[in-house]
Design goal:
Elements lengths: L8 E2 L7 H10 L12 H9 L7 H15 L4 E3 L12 H12 L4 E3 L2 E3 L2 E3 L1 H8 L6 H29 L7 H13 L5 H16 L10 E7 L1 H5 L7 H7 L2 E5 L3 H4 L3 H8 L4 H9 L9 H11 L4 E7 L3 H17 L3 E6 L5 H22 L7
Parallel strand pairs: 1-2, 2-3, 6-7, 6-8, 8-9
Antiparallel strand pairs: 4-5
Helix pairs in contact: 1-6, 2-3, 5-6, 6-7, 6-8, 7-8, 12-13, 13-14, 14-15
Amino acid sequence: MVDNKKKIVSFPHMGNIYVPMQVLFRQLDIEYVVPPFCNGRGMAWGSKYSPEFVCIPYKQVLGNYLEAVEMGANVLILLGGPGNCRFGYYSILQRKVFAELGYDVELLTPVISSRTISGVTDILKQMSPRNPSTWECVQAIFLALSVLHDIDEVERKLQWIRAREITNGSADKVFEKIADRMSRVTGLGELKRVKKESLEQLGDVPIDPKLNPLRVNIVGEIYVVHEPYVNKNIEVELGKRRVEVTRAEQLSQWIVLSPALVLDALGLGHEARIARAARGYLDHLHGETIGQTVMAKRQNFDGVVHLAPFVCTPEIVNENILPRLRQDIDIPVLSLILDEHTAEAGQLVRVEAFIDLLERRRRTRAGVPARR
């Protein structure tokens, strides 16, 4: 087995998670490979070895793993744990797939529960060749989470600029270099400096200050909201059409340390606010999508885009509540169901029609005659 070999670790993509993961591994001298960004080959490969009616996050994550093994990885981090989503049980099926394919890989499974990850320090000690102390692991985790928080903040500025930039794609080119630089930071002082310079670099992108873009909040299942290949680059496409996008939940809000959990227990944290907003519509299950849609109305967004994997159980529940909710609170909602067969052209037609609706609604409320 892998025990007698040099360990080479890999992990799945999910938005910008690859940036802090590299920081974490470098801090502990863990050798790793970053799988190719999500792509058609990985999706096809993952789908080939997946049950037909499993959701697209499972298929794409499996594709990431298979491509990582092809690149030399022999240790894979598979997330697991309880909850009302099947995500926590992916690792059980994926273990069977690797065994049937005859791959000599070690599978490590941190448990996700209540948005925290347990057993991480023990797993890091197993992967690192230098046997780090628990304190060294904690310091590395804290730095990685700080990177995740800061890149989320920088990306929020990217979303603001993307809807106003004079040349489409300019800000995204700057952000690519920022992400690479952030993945190489070695301490909090350096991170602070890199974040400041990154915000300044994005601030230098030429924009049209006269524009007043539509504002759309993206809600839904966390993976498809953050993974651009799976959601057909919906944030970029909306930005090209002068729509400012905000995600209802960032990865740094989804993966948290104990202080945030304490705030939630006291009713003051991010998740507690979402749960309060969902009351009356979804009281006994996790109602992130519902609560986030209510909050989008309170925050004066022009509309909401709801992203959901095909056959996703929690989002099926939410999708049946949303028609009544959008009537009650008077906010347009576009629901997009995603799987490996989703056509980008068809999705763009629906997105453009939704933008037209939002523009007409804004003009009507402002007393401006509709364009002919």
